[in-house]
Amino acid sequence: MAQAIKNQTENNLLNHSSMWRRTSCTLAIIFSASLILNALDHEHLLNSTWSGQVDAIEFNRDILPIFENSCTVCHGPAIQEAGLRLDTEIAVLVGGISGHTFIPGESEESLLVKHLLGQNVPQMPFNETPLPPKTIALIRSWIDSSKLTSFKTTTSSENASHWAYVKPERPPLPEVHTTDWARNPIDRFVLSTLEGENLSPSPEASSATLLRRLTLDLTGLPPTVQELDAFLADSSPTAYEATVERLLASPHYGERWARPWLDLARYADTDGYEKDLPRTIWKYRDWVIKAFNDEMSFKQFTIEQIAGDMLPNPTIDQQIATGFHRNTLSNKEGGVDDEEARWETLVDRVNTTASVWLGSTIACAQCHTHKFDPFSHEEYYKLLAFFNNVDYEIEIPDGLAQGESWVVEPELTLPTSEQAIQRQVISEELDRLRNTLETNTPELDTAQYIWESEVNQADNTWTILTPIEHKSEGGATLTRLRDDSILASGLNPEADTYTITATTEFRGITGIRLELLEDTSLPANGPGRDEEGNFFLSKFDVLIAPIGSPRLSTTLSFTDVMTNDWQAGYEVTRALREAQEAGGWALSEKGSKTQGTTQSVFLPTSPFGFDVGTHITVRLAHNMKRASRNIGRFRLSITTDGDPTTIVQVPISLHSTLKTPLANRTTKEASELASVHRTLTPLLQPIRDRIQILETRLVDLEIPTAMIIRERELDDRPSARMRFRGTFTLPGRKVFADVPNVLHPFPDGQELNRLGLAHWLVDDDNPLVGRVTVNRLWENLFGRGLVETSEDFGTEGATPTHQNLLDWLAVEFVEGNWSPKKILRTIVTSSTYRQDSRGHEALQNRDPYNLLLARGPRFRVEAEMVRDIALSVSGLLNRKIGGPSVHPYQPDGVWNRPYSDDQWIMSDGIDRYRRGLYTFVRRTAPYPSMTTFDAPSREFTQARRINTNTPLQALTTLNDPVFFEAAQHLAARIFRETDPRATIAARIRHAFRLVLSREPNHNELNALTQFYRQELARLDSNLVSAGHIVSGGPNPGLSTTELAAWTMLSNVMLNLDETITKE
């Protein structure tokens, strides 16, 4: 059967080769391998686990996996050959067009069995290797013991019989022969399976190995040498249990277990999408750490994150907890529909909630009723309605272009007592000054009248340039019109550069104006040539030369540019920088409409103009590829005015107001124009200067904030409109908040709102949440969950390898006050956990993935832990807990993005040596070494990380500055902590104890001694190389070559497979 499944998988991959070619080779290999291995794993269980247990057979646990592996491709929910479905117990009983597949209690007469045995043609599985006799015997035993008597028609509700949708009950502990080995109930379940396979558990791991495994699992850090010595010296029978309690009480316990939760919470320090602006949400991360350390029950942990704001008199911490659902992506791109952007966050909140608490891939139901799991299209939007009453506003933050806005949800400011006092003093003075700024006086009225006249007359100070030559590099037709403007027509290439030449006799030129003009020949009347009348100006260049002397041409430099319209992220200043495909100037949505003339004034570094006259060449580059966003109509002018920016001081939206007589202006128009004047008039400059100083002081206080969720007042149940095929622009009928029918009912006494949903999720009757949660805890300790697909407990997910154990843990968790720490304590004190991870060859061949749990866990640690181990053993680790995210070493260029000015500014001092948990997470440019070791970008929730092994990982630990600096400090530490007269061997032993928590064996000691001597000899003859190796690191008093040789040996130690592996 395994070969049949393998062949089928390979055939499927070949049949879908066009799809696979669009993915990376590595992904294809990994995924196809996982399919094959899953199949082999399932077959092994089917052929071994259930022998002799006829009286305990369950369809969903024992029989359905057989059908899923061999039958449901042709007889499942998608395809029903001969009208037959084999994906639910009732469906199997009903049968197809040939009649009932079996008669309960009479397997010999069952059509199903006859086709499986080949007694009826065709034998099943069709064109595949027949099922093994043992598997058929299991199916026959199920039929003979079946109590089903009803031949009703199947319905979607029958998916409720899927094992994961049935509330777990505490199973009885199985009888075992080797009772001495079992320390707790976990061992009884595991041992029962092993004895059924005629296998024995592995011996207990060594004390040193156990301590390292336990310390990594519970704190995410390796044990210190002092902790190792104390543990090895403690011969008391409770030494191990005492160590477990010490580690569970460590403040680093919260850091270690916060990390997988932050993957689920999609925690990141930026918004994501194109702009990926930074956000302040680290208070939520610190709340998670504290919740784990305080042993908050998972029930309360859930309620506070889903609806902490709705609790009676919520505390600051309970409000911070709601940051769980503020970790969504936030789309602040120009031109985005604000309501659609908000809708996308609601969709993410539904999908994340279902994945985290229900282990369900409910996202399919956004577009249609789920094909495999019992979640309907309507139920999806009923869940979404719970989140549709979250408070939000559509705002135009400071600095955003006209016509642009963002969805803004609430934030808490969290000053210290000292910051609060300082803020109050500053805020009171700011309020007084702003009131003064807005107070009307006769002097201001007079000044505004004069200013309006100057602005209206400003156009008269400009001289239009008459083009003498104009050309398009992309093939567009440029035509000079009577007003000396240039109109583009004809071909509209994806990218284009216009070159305009003109001459002037003026000297002392102080500004060049670019006007963007409307024209009926342009889309939406222009001024651009894209479908919305917009454009994308990547670069504005000007060359000047004396008339008649082209060889003396120079490029004009500019100090600044001002405009009366721009799109957020596409400010006009970008047109002065290096031309890029994705950088430049574009108009806001309103600015690209017919509301007036958009103008930009470019200010040269100094006035220019030659005595003999000046030849001016202007180049307008449009480099946004595949966009055809070129300017459609424009005009160039120059001025010698002392203040050339007057003409762009008034926003484009107020141009008509400026020309409207005072008596004819509306109150709003008059107020808006007065506000513009107050930002410019010299009369108020001292007040504006003082306001700027005070606002700077407020920023300098660095008062932390927290992104939170807040419920709006509502008279009725939360509701939402369904979306046809999940499309926002295709709304359907309204539905009200409710939960899926397949799961437990909504709790009595709870309102159908977000707080009620939180209580429903952690209701004792929820069949999923307990299983899902303990499975993740198990997965983090063993590398694989009892259900491998920890993100999917549905019918397409993996079958539990030990369902009774999973159910026992789930019931223990719920009945034990929902305590993760209690479950972890139970697991790590079990004999199952304490086994040696080195299985004998026969066991490795029989159970390569340790599905039977006949040996201890062994796998590479997660990305953050790889870094933390290096920093810890080298002595560099800063163990501070909590606080803002930090910026450790990062390769140059990772943050060089055209849409953002943000720079990776490395943190000062010891902050760069914080644990990986605190590294700043930018979604569009994740920290490279973390990504190399499979850390996610945190754009969406991720239930498990898939470990990969690539050459790039070794290159990272060899060459990344963090790891090489750790090697330098480890070398110095080895010397500081050993006797000055110690031998090479003694120092290598100490290095092993620091890095691996054990002594080296004879071969390891000889190999590293030889390596050290070879390096020392090499570096003695290459002092320059030795100097580079030790540069910037500490020196405990060694020669350069000795220290360099020890640094290289330390580098080897940090790159051992065992160093980054939990044994």
Largest sheet: 7 strands, antiparallel
Proportion of strand residues? 5-15%
What's the tally of helices? Answer: 35
| Shape, per Cα inertia axes | globular
Question: How many domains in all?
Answer: 6
| Average of per-residue pLDDT values | 87
Spans where pLDDT lies below 50 across 5 or more residues:
1-55, 149-160
CA-atom Rg in angstroms: 35 Å
Total beta strands: 20
Helix content: 25-40%
What is the terminal-to-terminal distance?
33 Å
Structural class label:
alpha+beta
Give a quick rundown of the structure.
The chain is of the alpha+beta class and 1063 residues long. Helices cover 39% and strands 9% of the residues.
Describe the 3D structure:
This protein is of the alpha+beta class and 1063 residues long. The protein has six domains: 2-164, no CATH class; 179-250 and 767-846, no CATH class; 255-411 and 712-761, no CATH class; 415-461 and 660-701, no CATH class; 465-648, Sandwich (Jelly Rolls); 959-1062. The chain is 39% helix and 9% strand. Strands 4, 6, 7, 9, 12, 13 and 15 form a seven-stranded antiparallel beta sheet that branches. Strand 6 and strand 7 form a beta hairpin. The longest helix is centred in the first third of the chain and has 24 residues, at 25-48. The protein is globular, with a radius of gyration of 35 Å. The protein starts with a helix and ends with a strand. Mean pLDDT is 87; it is low at 1-55 and 149-160.
